[in-house]
Specification:
By secondary structure, the chain is α/β, with parallel strands linked by helices. The protein has helices spanning 77-85, 106-112, 129-136, 143-156, 158-162, 173-185, 203-218, 230-236, 261-266; strands spanning 17-24, 29-48, 51-62, 66-70, 89-96, 99-100, 114-117, 191-195, 223-227, 239-244, 247-253. It has a single domain (61-89, 103-266), classed as Rossmann fold (3-Layer(aba) Sandwich), CATH 3.40.50. The chain contains nine helices and eleven strands.
Length: 272
């Protein structure tokens, strides 16, 4: 595993775990799957001025999971991520690794382990690829350590290494998305928020981005993914929430949604 991924201690106290029971046919008994709850949101309401955009939703993401929020434009997906990062007014409770963060400033949430690759990528266009990554690793205590971590990510994304001195604004859309994700990862997140990572990308490039998400998940990264591309998102997810008009209209394990194509037909504005 890359050095920029911190290992956080796991609790052995059952009260701090979520416990699910499933029938186990081989033994004729039930077995327990313990999952450490990394992000828990309860009764979340999000406001833009006087307008309530999200209406009291509950979301849970366990450590190492990829959980997806699906829905059409205006459903409240980005508003939910903004509430987690602290950039909008919200009520309800938000807990990260069992600690409340809802009253914390944006920078303090970042220090606690919340990182986002925002919609539209938002790279620093007039800075080089390398300088963008230095900004992402601003919390790293050692420049030498940060330089090593950046080099480690260049191994994962060789195209970024090849363009390390190139202005970020001159990269292709797919390359900018890789840069935005890597920049977020350099803050050592406990949870990585990905907001519409495939937006505006050609299908072939979009497929590469989802391959990256799948690889990050295999490395143990905890991910909350916002997407409109239901078919691609379902394939990389453990659990799915569907948002409509600021409320959760359905939810379940990803395999309950099949290949995601039915969701494409169900949700206005969702497309492959």
């Amino acid at each position: 595993m890359l050095s920029c991924h911190k290992t956080y201690p796991k609790t052995s106290h059952l009260g701090h775990n979520i416990v699910y029971a499933f029938p186990e046919l081989k033994s004729g008994k039930a077995f327990l799957l313990k999952a450490i709850l990394m992000l828990e949101i309860k009764a979340l309401k999000v406001f833009h001025g006087q307008i309530e955009a999200v209406h009291g939703i509950d979301i849970a993401v366990s450590q190492g999971q990829c959980v997806t929020l699906l829905g059409p434009n205006g459903a409240g997906k980005t508003s939910t991520l903004s509430a987690i990062t602290g950039t909008v007014r919200a009520t309800g409770t938000i807990q990260l690794d069992r600690e409340p963060i809802g009253a914390l400033a944006v920078e303090e949430r970042c220090k606690r382990g919340v990182a986002i690759s925002p919609e539209g990528r938002r790279v620093f266009a007039n800075l080089s690829v390398y300088d963008n990554l230095l900004m992402g690793g601003a919390l790293c205590p050692s420049r030498a350590q940060l330089d090593k971590e950046i080099e480690d990510w260049f191994v994962q994304f060789p195209v970024l290494g090849e363009r390390r001195n190139q202005l970020a604004g001159t990269l292709s859309g797919g390359e900018q998305q890789m840069l935005a994700i890597t920049r977020a990862l350099l803050s050592h997140p406990r949870i990585l928020l990905l907001d519409e990572p495939s937006l505006g990308l050609a299908p072939q490039i979009s497929a590469k981005i989802f391959d990256i998400i799948r690889n990050l998940k295999s490395l143990g990264t905890t991910i909350l993914l916002v997407e409109q591309n239901a078919a691609a998102a379902v394939r990389v997810s453990d659990y799915v929430y569907v948002l409509n008009n600021g409320m959760i209209s359905s939810q379940g394990k990803a395999d309950q949604f099949g290949d995601g194509n039915d969701l494409m037909n169900e949700l206005t504005g969702v497309h492959t």
